[in-house]
Amino acid sequence: MTHRRDAGPPGAAGTADPRAGRPWDSALSSGEFAAVRGAGFEPVGQVLGTAVFTIGYTGAWGCPGAWPVEGDPKASPSRWAPSLSQLARTMYAARRLALARAVAECRTLGGDGIVGVRLGIGEFPAGGVEFTVRGTAVRARSRIRPRLPFTSHLGGQDFARLLHAGWVPTGLAFGIGLATRHDDWRTSRRVRWTAGNQEVDGYTRLVGRVRHEAREQLALDAAKNGGDGVVVDDVELTVGEHECPLFGYARDLTAEAVFVGTSLARFGRSERAAGPGPLTIMRLEREH
């Protein structure tokens, strides 16, 4: 939607509005627009951040080959392939860079934060992967402004509801877990695929591991944002397979879990106690 902003009464905000009197656009519905205004904020424009990265699977992290079989007394303590930490750091960096560029646009518009943040990942036509961040920048109708622009996936109604309940968003939080597991006749030999319904233990542990890692990283990211808790927006799990570069008869299974949420803090909170405290991770139900 596109509207024309009124300049407003003198002194309504602590600093001059760089877009006063100019039309602005937003991705807010009419209900979200009303809720944001009711919470003391005004939309100042849509913002977009983007970053294109080359990201691919090379097999360098997986396919360790002749791993010991479970139950073998000579087996190593861990049958997991080496860490995918470098790839995970790249995935974080790409999202953070796109988010930082959206925040920079928010600053240019004179905004105090971004609501309704949506993340996008897709193939770039010329090659690589494009990470995008979209949202609506908002500005407080108050002399009291946040020191840094906040970012939140929450839509207008949820954003207003939290503010009225005494909570403020402090930033978008990410949690990413990546793992790979070499898969051949040894990893699944305990499963007889013709024997009916039964658990494939190796696969269960693979997805359990990445979800656990992603959840831990989400909590750490929320704490860095100064949050007391985090409202989870989306949880994604993708599993892919790649031919093992060392053994043509086998494959590597890779699993990725991504948690996205908004970290929250209470109004008037005293300085955070030394050391990280426990974080509450919750899902906020939306109205449809």
Instruction: Provide mean pLDDT, rounded.
Output: 76
How many β-strand runs?
Answer: 10
Shape: elongated
Count of discrete structural domains: 1
Radius of gyration: 23 Å
Name the structural class: alpha+beta
What are the secondary-structure elements, in order, as H or E? EEHEHEEEHEHEEE
- Looking at the chains present, what oligomeric state does this protein adopt? single chain
Uncertain segments: 2-16, 64-83, 270-279
Major sheet: order of its strands?
3-5-4-6
Distance between the termini: 20 Å
Percent of residues in beta strands?
25-35%
Helical content class: 10-25%
Counting H and I runs of at least 4 residues, what is the number of helices? 4
The major pleated sheet works out as: 4 strands, mixed
Describe the structure concisely.
The protein has 4 helices and 10 strands.
Ordered list of secondary-structure elements with their pairings:
Layout: E1 2-4, E2 23-25, H1 30-38, E3 41-53, H2 85-108, E4 113-123, E5 129-140, E6 150-151, H3 156-164, E7 167-183, H4 201-224, E8 229-243, E9 251-266, E10 280-283
Parallel strand pairs: 4-6, 8-10
Antiparallel strand pairs: 1-2, 3-5, 4-5, 7-9, 8-9
Overall description:
The protein has 288 residues and is an alpha+beta fold. It has one domain. The protein is built from four helices and ten strands. The protein has helices at 30-38, 85-108, 156-164, 201-224, and strands at 2-4, 23-25, 41-53, 113-123, 129-140, 150-151, 167-183, 229-243, 251-266, 280-283. Strands 3-5-4-6 form a four-stranded mixed sheet. A four-stranded mixed sheet has the order 7-9-8-10. Strand 4 (113-123) and strand 5 form a beta hairpin. Helix 1 packs parallel to helix 3 (156-164). The longest helix has 24 residues, at 85-108. It is elongated.
